[in-house]
Design brief:
The protein has about 140 residues and is mainly beta. About 15% of the residues lie in helices and about 35% in strands. Strand 1 and strand 2 form a beta hairpin.
Length: about 140
């Protein structure tokens, strides 16, 4: 079994446990939400790109940290305050979120770019042979 196989297995186990611990929306005790994430590789430029669906998330609440083949994205989607509302149906998840993405290659967080446009966060991480040590916060660029 290769290191890549072990990393993939660990990622699948983490996803399974995250899904198992999710409480149904309608129970009233579920807090936060779990935004959808895509991650893909390109050769020109040699990079990993992570895309996160974040409609309704205030960009000021976002925190993006990368390093050691790991990307962490966290923040919060707040429920709008409307006085006197009584719900007939409630499906839109709100609250804090935290997503962790295992990266298949070493990246350079110093040269990473993050943008938020139309509720979609896109993080481009250049692939490198020798990554900087430690973790680094990636700042959100202009939208």
């Amino acid at each position: 079994m290769t290191r890549r196989d072990v990393d993939k297995l660990q990622e699948e186990i983490e996803e399974l446990f995250a899904d198992l611990w999710q409480v149904p929306r309608f129970s009233g005790i579920r807090h936060g939400f779990r935004p959808n994430v895509d991650c893909f590789h390109t050769d020109d430029p040699h990079a990993l790109t992570v895309v996160v669906e974040l409609p309704g998330v205030d960009p000021r609440s976002l925190r993006i940290v990368a390093g050691e083949r790991l990307l962490l994205v966290s923040g919060e989607r707040k429920q709008p305050k409307v006085p006197g509302r009584v719900y007939q149906q409630m499906e839109i998840e709100t609250g804090p979120f935290h997503r962790q993405v295992r990266l298949g290659e070493d990246v350079d967080p110093e040269r990473a770019r993050a943008t938020l446009e139309n509720g979609v966060l896109t993080i481009e991480l250049p692939v490198v042979d020798h990554p900087p040590a430690g973790r680094m916060t990636i700042r959100l660029g202009s939208t």
